[in-house]
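Schema walk-through. Below, the input block comes first and the output block second. Nothing else is stored per chain. Lengths vary across the set, and this one has 159 residues.
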Amino acid sequence: MSTIKLIDQFRASSALHAAALNKIASMDDATLDRALAQVDDATLGRALARVDDATLGRVLARVDMPVPVVADLDARMLAAAESGNLDMGKWHCGTTHCRAGWAVVFGGDDGARLEQVIGTEMAGRLIYEASTGRIAPNFYASNDAAIADIRACAALAAS
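--- output ---
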């Protein structure tokens, strides 16, 4: 197959995906419920990775997938980081996690289910934002930058 045909197919596929996502966002609740009843968690996760925040929240509420709110998330992350259990290079590695990984872990069973469906980064972001009321931090920062920011966030939350 020629490169031009592949590019044309990619463009057509991208347009179809965009149209499908717009359709999801505009569905009434009854139609959305019928559509959600027909998909598994993996399919749902792939779709939710591409929708806007409003649609994401609406769909998660419809499938009874709560975003956990973790009390004192910044202080808990700081304790984990200062005990040597922060590794910004991996979501999870034994008892060591990055910031998004820790948000998921501290989110308990609801955090784990959310991670399974929409991935660690998105689950961590949603949990962090719901728990702190702030925009999620840079989940790709270095360990030193992350620890410095975690300290600042914990101090801010304590004041």
